[in-house]
Design a protein that fits this description.
By secondary structure, this protein is an alpha/beta fold. The protein has 2 domains: 9-275, Alpha-Beta Complex (Spore Coat Polysaccharide Biosynthesis Protein SpsA, Chain A), CATH 3.90.550; 290-414, no CATH class. Helix content is 54%, strand content 11%. Helix 3 (69-75) links the parallel strand 2 (56-62) and strand 3. The protein starts with 8 loop residues before the first helix and ends with a helix.
């Protein structure tokens, strides 16, 4: 059953009491009692410091936390001239429903700009409010994505998958398409609420990339803002990121189906206007258990290689076999092999009507192989040097886009979809 609104009655009533505002900042959260107060504190300070003459509302969109997230959020005192709402959203569990409630509130309050920040942030400063909202408030941008200074092993899914595919498919060099901290115009918020996505799997666990993709394909004015270091509850790629890999890949490929005519017509890519700020900071080190990552790939190879042989072309599978025989010291997955894997997987995903999530699960060990290769290759590099490698990889994805279109169309024809 679909919900007509993500806002509960008491939240709607509270919005009616406030009537109108200039800025709304939403914080989607679930069981974040340890960090949410710091986030609210930085937001209230930032709004007071940079937008004191504006009417500002902070909306905590909670997913039914079982800890004291809502209580500590409610008890924390913000500036007396600002408004705060602590609500439980309606709809399927997940960040999508939380953001839907924020977008609906933005429309109800007729705000000029909407900000969203994650509730597990430890590095947020009061200036993030300015960096995110100013381009929307003063420069007419509809969508501002974040640019973070991150440790080379934080964001492996963005570095090895999301940035490459988003740039190659849609032609915009948005560095953090799933960054989590955004600012949008009210027009953008209205556009989002009108889309038929809120009861789908994409809304449950792929809302960030959905927002970014729709901002591009909808022809909105897009920019990005440098926020400096992002310190949050970072996860070891070897132990925590398999579910995220599956969710992100599933969403990316689903969006490719929705926007097929758009991305097929895109050639090359362009830079996105970026608001730079002088921020001096160093990212926290992210520890990686390389032996564990390699082990997960080797075990996966033993389990699934016979299925991989059916999914991937002969050249690609031969390369995977070679990689599986390599020891730790010489382990390497060439970039062109990784490009081929993701592009051929996209074509197979498109051709399959059923068990698509199972398909993505089967190839998860190949993501571990790519991460292990990236870790080994960048072991003696600074995070800045590793960034150059990420850029080279993105260029290779772009250069081979014709292969993606070829494989996408061929596999669709073989499945009788063309």
């Amino acid at each position: 059953m679909g919900f007509k609104s993500a806002l509960r009655g008491y939240t709607y009533k509270r919005l009616e009491e406030i009537e109108q505002a200039d800025i709304l900042v939403g914080v989607p959260c679930f069981n974040n009692e340890a960090t949410v107060v710091h986030v609210i504190q930085m937001l209230t300070h930032g709004l007071a410091k940079h937008f004191k003459d504006k009417r500002c509302v902070i909306l905590i969109a909670d997913g039914g936390s079982t800890d004291d997230t809502r209580e500590v959020a409610r008890d924390f005192e913000i500036k007396p001239w600002q408004e705060k709402i602590v609500s439980i959203y309606r709809g399927p569990g997940g960040k999508g429903s939380a953001l839907r409630s924020i977008f609906e509130a933005a429309e109800k309050l007729k705000v000029k700009a909407v900000g969203m920040v994650d509730s597990d942030l430890r590095s947020i400063t009061s200036d993030w409010v300015k960096y995110l909202l100013e381009p929307v408030m003063e420069e007419g941008f509809d969508f501002i994505a974040p640019v973070y200074l991150r440790h080379k092993y934080d964001g492996t899914i963005t570095n090895n998958i999301v940035y490459n595919l988003t740039r190659s498919l849609y032609g915009q060099r948005i560095r953090q398409p799933i960054g989590g901290d955004f600012a949008i115009s009210r027009g953008m918020a209205k556009y989002y609420t009108e889309q038929e996505v809120w009861d789908t799997e994409v809304a449950r666990y792929g809302i960030d990339i959905w927002m970014t993709t729709n901002a591009v394909t909808g022809g909105f004015k897009i920019g990005q803002a440098n926020l400096g270091v992002k310190i949050h509850d970072a996860k070891d790629p070897g132990t925590h990121l398999a579910p995220m890999f599956r969710q992100v890949i599933y969403t990316l490929y689903s969006l490719m189906e929705d926007h097929e005519s758009y991305w097929k017509a895109v050639k090359g890519s362009v830079t996105v206007p970026t608001f730079e700020h002088k921020i001096k900071a160093e990212p926290e080190e992210v520890k990686v258990n390389l032996d564990n990552i390699l082990q997960q790939f080797k075990v996966g190879y033993k389990q699934f290689s016979s299925l991989w042989k059916e999914i991937f072309c002969e050249d690609c599978f031969d390369e995977i076999q070679k990689i599986a025989r390599l020891g730790k010291k010489k382990f390497h997955m060439p970039t062109n092999t990784w490009v081929q894997i993701l592009y051929e997987l996209a074509g197979t995903f498109h051709a399959w009507e059923h068990n698509r999530m199972r398909l993505v699960e089967l190839v998860t060990p190949l993501y571990y192989a790519r991460v292990a290769s990236f870790v080994i290759q960048t072991m003696n590099m600074s995070s800045e040097e590793a960034e150059d490698l990420v850029e080279e990889q993105a260029q290779e994805f772009e250069a081979n886009k014709d292969y993606l279109i070829h494989i996408w169309d061929r596999k669709a024809a073989e499945a009788g979809k063309a």
